[in-house]
Amino acid sequence: MLLRYLLLLRRHAWFLLGTGAAFFFLFFYLSGFIIQRMKQDLLPESARLIATGMLETVMVKLQIALVLTAVALIPVALLLVARALRFRPGLGFLLWLGSALLLLLLGFSFTYFLLLPTAVKVLTALTTEAGVLAYYSINQFIFFAFLTTVLFSLLFELPLVVTWLALRGIVSLDSLREKRKYVYVGIVTLAAVITADPTPMSQLLLSMPLILLYELSLVVAGLLIKIRE
After folding, report:
1. CB within 8 Å of 30: residues ≥ 6 apart
2. Contact call for residues 44 and 77 (beta carbons, < 8 A)
3. Mean of the pLDDT values across residues 111-140?
4. How many CA atoms lie within 13 A of 49 on its CB side?
5. Cβ atoms of residues 206 and 119 within 8 Å
6. Selection from 144, 142, 123, 147 nearest residue 134 by Cα
7. Is residue 194 within 8 Å of residue 143, measured between CB atoms?
8. Cα 225 to the chain's mean position, in Å?
9. Residue 13 has what pLDDT?
10. Fewest C-beta in 10 Å: which of 47, 115, 119, 174?
């Protein structure tokens, strides 16, 4: 099945390439506004944002454009596959799509307006209370905040993914519950990779919401399975 989808996408490779290039230039143009907005919304007054190299700001803009292009191409690729397979969306599909968009919005709102401001304020306070000036490089601060926002927004789709896998019988709910400790280790590892300051405090601030989200996924999947039965 996966090979079939890949072959379908191969037929539209030039279209995807052109669309990706258009997305990239658009997002690169908008990256300056994104940087300024994130600086205004997330950087505390006691901290300063600096560039440690001549090309650092350009590299951050390139990274932002690449990440947003990759995310934007996902629905484009899915639409191409659906069109090739002559898929006609029904009510169930629309419900799943609406749920996915809602979770994406909730993930973005939670991360950008609650998680990141709290994490940045706590970490900055720990720095200034130690008598050290808080100077963050644009790559360390902006791209960390940007990547965290994107990843957490996408990870809020976890309840839908877990529910879909459980309802389809691809993965049993009991297996997901038994292997939760491995999931926890993976989440903590992911938090250590994402954060620009891999201290226990920052890892806790990033990993706890994901652990709670995974547990919520198990609860939602269990309820839907009982309703179906």
Report:
1. none
2. no
3. 87
4. 21
5. yes
6. 123
7. no
8. 27
9. 74
10. 174
Q: Among 192, 104, 94, which residue's Cα sits nearest to residue 149?
A: 104
Q: How far is Cα 13 from Cα 15, in angstroms, rounded to an integer?
A: 5
Residue 26 pLDDT grade (very low, low, confident, very high; cuts 50, 70, 90): very high
With 90 as the cut, is the pLDDT of residue 39 above it? yes
pLDDT recorded at residue 6:
55
Burial of 147 (0-12, 13-18, 19+ CB in 10 A): middle
Higher pLDDT, 214 or 26: 26
On whether the CB atoms of residues 57 and 137 are closer than 8 A, the answer is no
| Percent of the chain at pLDDT exceeding 90 | 26
- pLDDT (0 to 100) of residue 202: 63
Name the one residue in this structure whose structure tokens are 């292997």: 179
Task: Identify the sign of the CA torsion 66, 71, 72, 76.
Answer: positive
Rounded-to-integer distance, Cα 124 and Cα 135, Å: 9
Residue with the two structure tokens 């809602």: 102
Q: In 3D, which of 159, 139, 148, 153 has the Cα closest to residue 205?
A: 148
Distances (CA, A) of 18 to 14, 24, 77, 177: 6, 10, 13, 43
Could you give the 3-state DSSP secondary structure of residue 61?
helix
Please give the backbone phi and psi of residue 182, each rounded to the nearest 5 degrees, phi first.
-70, -35
